[in-house]
Design a protein that fits this description.
Three copies of one chain form a homotrimer. Chain A is of the alpha/beta class and about 220 residues long. The first copy, chain A, folds into two domains: about 55 residues, no CATH class; about 140 residues, Glucose Oxidase, domain 1, CATH 3.50.30.40. Chain A is about 30% helix and about 25% strand. In chain A, a hairpin with a 2-residue loop joins β8 and β9. In chain A, α2 packs across α5. Chain A is elongated. Chains in contact: A-B, A-C, B-C.
Chain lengths: ~220, ~220, ~220
């Protein structure tokens, strides 16, 4: 399938559905503790990885320059090791990312300029919010190499889906299987919802539509 | 007093007032770190307890079936040991709980489907939000037995009051004393508010209306 | 410069700009983990310090009386050691502080009465929210002495600026240098924003406007 078609299909499922599909395939893709900071709380796209690492106190380290070369439709996924006390994203990056039609930003760390980001249509998710710059505290270590996001391995080109329940990573090699699984889960849950709205007990609906099938 | 009358009276007081009344009786009822996740941020009702416990990795454990038998007006209080990395409540349970006219849900753990819950009229409070299912991670250990919620012992039939300041448990055997104490505190604070609006200094108002009475 | 003029100038900059200016002067003023709890998320003013300390269980300790003597325009800055499980601020203090035209309240600890505070025009920032009183748990230890706020030393008369990104302290002896530095940073960032809106690459804009100047 085309990349755009895959992204369009993935956007139809919410993160709980996709997480259940990953579970059935024994894939760990759920990134703990990363929450929306922007008005727009939905992301679907392919991963562009960025990794920062701490510098020794007093060592000069400029802000990382990578945003100009991120392809349209990408999700900027930043591994700053979960650090809360300095930031790696702010209002100017939000502006540029929006202009470049990126799909969103996910940070295992902190962002700043919440006054702008909190009402932004460009979606930003992060573990923490603060205002102190990462400049001279962390430096750009790599782009487009494998990183870790809240314990989940993320590769360039993997897929990200994020909503109010949080952030999930779908490995690129499994995307079609995960979409298929998500669709099945979506259908089962739709049937259960319809049945209980129609008056069926939930335990009966779960039995009827095989919600509690064993782990495959 | 009738149960319904007790609930109606309890709903008149906010959690700080009730907490102060519990303090005067040396009762610990304040549940730390459990915050509203839904649009509706008010719960008043009687406790229906649910306890989950972890299963070993790889062991199959289906979702817990209990919701169909919870009596109208109950608050589903779930002890999942404060675990953040899997969920024990979602959109289908929210739908069923609302249809069954339950009073709300309080979770010492995580819920999912925040896209639905965040705009829900059915009140859900939890310690964390995530998207990964508890299915095959935790199993239903008991219903209607004593549990612990953020360090507070909770018995079936106890009373819950929750608002934006958090969740509080009132033991059923003390409910009338607590209502009486809450009413006194409510009156004293009303008098203090009126006095300071009328121009009195706060320290004088506190002395006048005996805000700083010793612990009884 | 007059105090009022300094406050008016400081209110023009957001906390990231001021934080960058402090960075250039090697001053630590960024207070980690203190977030807005009120509708009004902006504070600018001079510090009035309040310090609480724990009392032994069972020891009687009344609520602290200090609010009636806090000068107009002050920010009440409360050091309760980051404690989450009892509160040192609530709705009556919010009412009195608003009537006395204080500039806001910042708490290294918990506040209560979020039902009132969350829709309040009087700005309250805190590390946590809960409902259990500090009465008989903590006592007023000092006012207008040096305190620590999330690891940052704060002196009476220092300046506070707070917004959605968090809380920052500007030492009174450096306020004019910090204002000067904030203005320079504000100008550079404005030029970068205009340039990228005009179509310049961000890396080029940063070079052109010397965003990555070395630490002075």
């Amino acid at each position: 399938m085309e990349q755009n078609e895959l992204i369009s299909l993935l956007s139809k499922y919410d993160t709980p559905e996709i997480s259940d599909a990953l579970d059935n395939l024994h894939i760990n893709g759920a990134c703990l503790g990363i929450a929306p900071r922007s008005r727009n709380t939905e992301i679907t796209g392919t991963v562009f990885t960025v990794k920062f690492e701490p510098v020794s106190p007093g060592v000069s380290a400029k802000a990382g320059d990578y945003i100009d070369d991120v392809p349209e439709g990408s999700v900027v996924v930043i591994d700053n090791g979960g650090i809360d006390n300095c930031t790696v994203w702010g209002d100017i990056l939000t502006l540029v990312a929006g202009m470049r039609k990126l799909a969103g930003t996910v940070i295992d760390g902190s962002c700043r300029d919440l006054s702008v980001i909190s009402s932004s249509d460009y979606p930003v998710f992060s573990k923490h919010a603060f205002m102190r710059t990462g400049k001279n505290r962390v430096r750009l270590a790599s782009v487009q190499e494998n990183i870790t996001l809240s314990g989940v391995t993320v590769n360039p080109g993997d897929f990200i889906r994020a909503d109010k329940s949080g952030v999930i990573v779908v490995p690129k090699h499994n995307i079609e299987l995960v979409l298929e699984g998500s669709q099945k889960i979506h259908e089962v849950e739709d049937k259960i919802r319809s049945a209980v709205i129609g008056g069926m007990r939930l335990d009966e609906a779960r039995r009827t539509f095989k919600y509690n099938q064993p782990l495959r």
